[in-house]
Design goal:
Shape: elongated
Strand order of the largest sheet: 5-3-4-6
Strand content: 5-15%
């Protein structure tokens, strides 16, 4: 973070923030976010809601000046090739999307029990056979093991 830019006048603070933006931009674009400059001169690795909360909000005039420095990001991107290895860690915080095909097994009278959340899903449900962890069993066995139906709606 560029905390040194918070002291001083508006012109000296804008120059260090703009100089720091290209290096931050290349590291953050590898992680999938667009960096922004906060009103107090610090930078946030991602834009969007809450990016500069506690820092006075996003400095929108500094964001417009950062667009002209795009050619300087190419050499910085080569220097931060190690930041690309950190990208999978950022992807792990995204929402889980079920696979297209359910797990093999199941069938008539079987429900899919998500073993980590203790919630079971009925045939035809979006998550039937598709959660990260789970197993097929009868609805009665699922209830006996302490699982509850998804959205508290038992299978019919």
């Amino acid at each position: 973070m560029n905390k040194a830019a918070s002291s001083g006048g508006a012109t000296p603070a804008a120059a260090p923030a703009a100089a720091a933006a290209p290096a931050t931009a290349s590291a953050s674009s590898a992680a999938g976010g667009t960096p922004v400059v906060c009103k107090d001169g610090t930078t946030s690795p991602h834009g969007g809601r809450g990016a500069c909360s506690g820092h006075g909000g996003i400095n929108k005039s500094a964001g417009a000046g950062g667009g002209g420095a795009a050619p300087a990001t190419a050499p910085a991107a080569a220097a931060t090739a190690g930041a690309a290895a950190a990208a999978p860690a950022a992807a792990s915080t995204q929402k889980y999307v079920p696979p297209a095909q359910p797990a093999p097994g199941g069938g008539a009278g079987q429900v899919w029990v998500n073993t980590s959340s203790k919630v079971y899903h009925c045939p035809g449900d979006q998550w039937y056979g598709k959660t990260k962890q789970g197993e097929y069993m009868t609805e009665a066995a699922a209830k006996a093991s302490g699982a509850r139906p998804d959205h508290n709606k038992p299978c019919s």
